[in-house]
Design a protein that fits this description.
The structure holds 2 protein chains of 2 kinds. By secondary structure, chain A is mostly beta strands. Chain A contains no helices and 11 strands. Chain A has strands at residues 3-7, 11-12, 18-25, 35-40, 47-52, 58-60, 68-73, 78-83, 92-99, 110-113, 117-121. The chains are: A mainly beta, B mainly beta. Chain A binds chain B through residues 45-48, 59, 61-62, 95, 100, 102-104, 107-111, 113-116, and chain B through 1, 30-31, 33, 35, 37, 43-47, 50-51, 54, 56-57, 88, 90, 92-101.
Chain lengths: 123, 107
């Protein structure tokens, strides 16, 4: 059974950098899928952040691209999100997810999701 | 960017009724690369449909997807109390965007 678990600080100060990690179990991160991050501000809809594959190839949401880095560590079977210069608008539940197979490139539906972690940006 | 508009915003129906949810795209969605998700309160989204009409693993056959181009539909043939949720469409043919969601309420 594929399982994903997000971890990282629940509180980040404005202008600082948000770091989150997603640990994958029950499936090898090197099996050919892309792995992505999606976020959801409290009471609002879903926003795709970006995706990475085992080789480190990435796709990013154009609106966040200048502040986002997604990386993969196959030896630890995990991938990570870095978001710089955060503001209150970045307060959200952050989900990591496994992308499916029947798509093109790094933009795909997500078939397994973590439970999500709330990150609040506040001083 | 492809903008997805979902309607209605809220759907209130009784158990056993048919629910029809709409997702309209601002441009044609390439290769029918459209998915539907169900998100129950306090939970992560769950994939229901991908490729516009393919059911994900373990999804009951009362959920079905259809459409192409700019018009897509999610149908729940016989609503059950546990279908209370927000439903999102997502296109992944040109970058990746989500619709704003349709909330399904059970009377």
């Amino acid at each position: 059974q594929v399982q994903l678990q997000e971890s990282g600080p629940g509180l980040v100060k404005p202008s600082e950098t948000l770091f989150l990690t997603c640990a994958v179990s029950g499936y090898s991160i090197s099996s050919g899928n892309y792995w992505g991050w999606i976020r959801q501000p409290p009471g609002k809809g879903l926003e795709w952040i970006g995706s990475v594959d085992q080789s480190g190839s990435t796709y990013y949401n154009p609106s966040l691209k200048s502040r986002v880095t997604i990386s993969v560590d196959s030896s630890k079977n995990q991938f990570s999100l870095k978001l710089t210069s955060v503001t209150a608008a970045d307060t959200a539940v952050y989900y990591c997810a496994r992308d499916g197979r029947y798509c093109s490139g790094g933009c795909c539906y997500s078939d397994y999701w973590g439970q999500g972690t709330l990150v609040t940006v506040s001083s | 960017e492809i903008v997805l508009t979902q309607s209605p915003g809220t759907l209130s129906l009784s158990p056993g009724e048919r629910a029809t949810l709409s997702c309209r795209a601002s441009q044609s969605v390439r290769s029918r690369y459209l998915a539907w998700y169900q998100q129950k309160p306090g939970q992560a989204p769950r994939l229901l449909i991908y490729g516009a009409s393919s059911r994900a693993t373990g999804i009951p056959d009362r959920f079905s997807g259809s459409g192409s181009g700019t018009e897509f539909t999610l149908t729940i043939s016989r609503l059950e109390p546990e279908d209370l949720a927000v439903y999102y469409c997502q296109q992944y043919g040109s970058s990746l965007t989500f619709g704003g969601g349709t909330k399904v309420e059970i009377k």
